[in-house]
Give the backbone structure.
Amino acid sequence: MAKLPQGWVECQLGEVFETSSGGTPKRGNSEYYQNGTIPWLKSGELNNSIIYSAEEFITEEGLNNSSAKIFPKGSLLIALYGATVGKLGILDFDSATNQAVCCIYQNTYYNRDFLFYYLLLKKEYLVNQGKGGAQPNISQEIVKSLLIPFPPLNEQRRIVEKIESEFAKIDEGLEHLENAKEQIKQYRQSVLKSAFSNCSSYIKVGELCEVVRGGSPRPAGDEKYYNGHIPFLKVADITKDNNKYLNEYTYTIKEAGLKKTRLVNANTLLLSNSGATLGVPKICTFATTFNDGIAAFLGLSNETLDFHYYYWLSKTKELRCINQGAAQPNLNTDIIKEQLIPNLNKFEQKEIVKEIEKRFAVADEVEKVVEQNIEKAKQLKQSILKKAFEGRLVPQDPTDEPASILLEKIKQERSKKK
């Protein structure tokens, strides 16, 4: 921080707050988990907000036989490991945590919510402190050594109130923007439904083309089959975005794996047929192999691919509602073949595609504006936080007790405890 406002000081977080990390009872011991009553949070459950419940519980034995400890309600938590580094949470109940979470205990002289918002501002800085390994990890020492602004206590409260007031206005706008995104999504679905609902003649998909399913060389990851030069697709490759075309791949196999899977040519229509994301179509622009969570349509001419793509895009929601009595949703090729598609000539197909894409282009432009405004709102929040911790968000009160006195009180109290 450049020049501190009147009455502020700067210090390390560890000079003001007591911190501690959690622990994980040995997973192989069922006595540590079975019928547990002590809430036990993992870093992935931190949500940059108040935490009202835990996904897992541990027993007293699990608590006593690990480095886990119970942190009091009201404590501020921060994630130390992996993709969640810097994520925050405020406990609404007494809870233990795993070792990837650091607890920052409350302090009488420093407003917890003021620190929460400051750490929210410093997340990128903390993530950068943890880079260098396979994934970012920060230590408790990095948290404790973080320099924090220390205004007078009453000013801290005024700043928090102003931040929350401004954030509430932004969140209201964000809610409207998210609703607009949902309406655009519904509009696209209505366009698709309209495009395929007024046809008088239908034909089964299986009568138009061959429907096949992929396969996976086993065992998975075996170097005998994998990490070669031949593209190998998984469901995640198909479902990772909303694009019509698939132009890249993540995984590969070797020649030895070809007998265990299926190879299709470039410009093949694919469809995810397994799991919660089934029913997503993609036109693959390169020759590829694929696993059994994906179906391919063989024998479709290139000029009809767009028509078939939009047809299956219109069916996604319906396909996910097909109940086959299994725990995991799954489409077999027989179900796919039995689907009815409008029986149209190529000219009629092109006209339908033209109308769909004309309307989708308008929706894309509107969505782009909505996304830009969402990003601006997020940036505005960062701007508000920056102003807050530079002392430019609320007026100062010369009668407030200076933070230097508060910091000295903290040091004296901690010295007595030692």
Q: What stands out?
A: The domain at 202-343 is CATH 3.90.220.20 (Adenine-n6-DNA-methyltransferase TaqI; Chain A, domain 2). The chain has two domains: 1-151, 202-343. The chain has a mean pLDDT of 94. The first strand starts at residue 9 and ends at 12.
